[in-house]
Amino acid sequence: MLALNKVNLSFNTGTVNEVQALKDLGLLLEQGDFVVVIGGNGSGKSTMLNTVSGTYLPDNGKIVLDGKDITFMPEHVRAKYVGRVFQDPMRGTAPDMTIEENLALAHRRGEKRSFRRGIRAAERTQYRELLSRLDLGLEDRLNTRIGLLSGGQRQAITLLMATLQNPKVLLLDEHTAALDPKTAAKVLEISVHLIEESYLTTLMVTHNMADAIKYGNRLVLMREGEIIFEATGQQKASLTVPELVDKFISAGVEVLV
Amino acid sequence: MINIFAGAVGLGLIWGIVTLGIFISYRVLGMPDLSVEGSIVTGAAVATMLIISGAHPLLALLGATLAGAAAGTITGFLHTRLKIPALLSGILTMTALYSINIRIMDGRPNVPLLRTDTLLTPLVDLGLTRDYAIIVIALAAVILVVGALRWFLTTEFGSALRATGNNPHMSTAQGINTKTMKLVGLACANSLVGLAGGLLAQYQGFVDVQMGIGAIVIALASLIIGEVIFGRTTLLRSMIAVVLGAIVYRIIIAMVLEAGMAATDLRLFTAITVALALWLPSARDQIDIISRRIRHKAHTFGQSGDDSKQTGQTG
Ligand SMILES: Nc1ncnc2c1ncn2[C@@H]1O[C@H](COP(=O)(O)OP(=O)(O)OP(=O)(O)O)[C@@H](O)[C@H]1O
Ligand SMILES: [Mg+2]
Fold first, then answer.
1. ipTM summary value
2. Distance from the alpha carbon of residue A163 to the mean position of ligand 1, in angstroms
3. Domain span at A16
């Protein structure tokens, strides 16, 4: 369970450029909730995810994960509970390290890194198996440098890395936005599969209205650092793209469809 | 000539260890660490003073290594905890070390290591020249260091260190404390530089507070020469390559000196070599663009010639 309680966050406080990116933001995710986050540019979606991951620390408010107050827990410590895939495919993997080395790094997320071998033989079998399920032909390329892969392949591997240790919460921030439509659909399909398989609590940001309706059991619409509309379960499932666009427009958000 | 060659190889092996230090800070962590100019002297000073006070030469090397690690820790602290840019952190440590080094050397800028047993003594007693003796000792040290690094960098911890240099965002997201990694990496790099300083003092028979000047550029030159000539496909290969690069660099220096270059021009020569080597990757692109521009111009010129002919016909 993830709870954001009256979270406020401002950038450039005390200057003319001051922005209040999050305003008394409240959100409660039950175990297994798959929440799609939509909203215009600058509405605070990424900032919200970044306060959950600990990249930004809030001015005030509280973030609780499974009963534990993580508001000021350092980012790298929190990483134990948080799986992340960024918008930029370059961000999620170490380009000069091999596929198996990257997976092995993720496999040890939240564990003490000792002076044992960086990868054990048994892991390779597991990685090969996981990669073959991606159906991207990567299972025979364990020793390929990640930097040689395409953006889509890198995002798929980042997804594996984010979910390898069953995170308590998975954060996907427009993680298919940099990919071509076909690859984006494929990566999204992989994401949904991984989420449903392990019943992962997920926050997924997207600008694609059709995806926002199709996936997840909840949807939230953000504007100026606040959640201004929310749909759950049946209500969400019956939403249509035009309805959602209307919500946007009535919220004063400009949209291009 | 053969004597010059032997001297160059011995010195190259010692500087190969410095270059391995730079390999860790510059290549693995992606940080330009200038503190080496000070920590190499610290290593030399600690080793010299320990030997003079009667310590075993091997113990002196251990002391030099630890002193280097301490110097690297200071740079790491300034950079990761006080958030001072890496380059500046190194300069601050280097500057501070100048004073500290003279303190270690009992207030003198130069301490000789004469008539005392060093690591070279037993080998010299066996009939080897000093140049050959240091080759044996430095080679053993290089093999140990490369082996240890190869092991260390492929452990769980070492992988995390490499990831930190390669992609800090990803590393943090995977639960790696990148600050700690940078600190440990810098300590590690400078421990090697300290060790090399300790060897250098025993080989040269003195420590001089100025002996570190230019060390970073020499090590960079060695690193780049090694990578260009011997390749960097795997970790082990890269490490062997940079050591060989240091030897090649020393041989080049020995040859240009032999050819009559003034010793005082060496730094200029080295700086130009490094500048050219650093330019190399972008030089290819630049030359490519220039040649495309020339071809484009030639092409457009040809076309405009046709155009004028056409207008001539219609007119
Ligand atoms: N690091 C930062 N420094 C200063 N201001 C920031 C920073 N990050 C975000 N902001 C500001 O906070 C507000 C919210 O930004 P955020 O990135 O969360 O929006 P978003 O909803 O993710 O938008 P997009 O759809 O464009 O990704 C914006 O006004 C933005 O300019
Ligand atoms: Mg965003």
1. 0.91
2. 26
3. 2-93+151-156+166-250
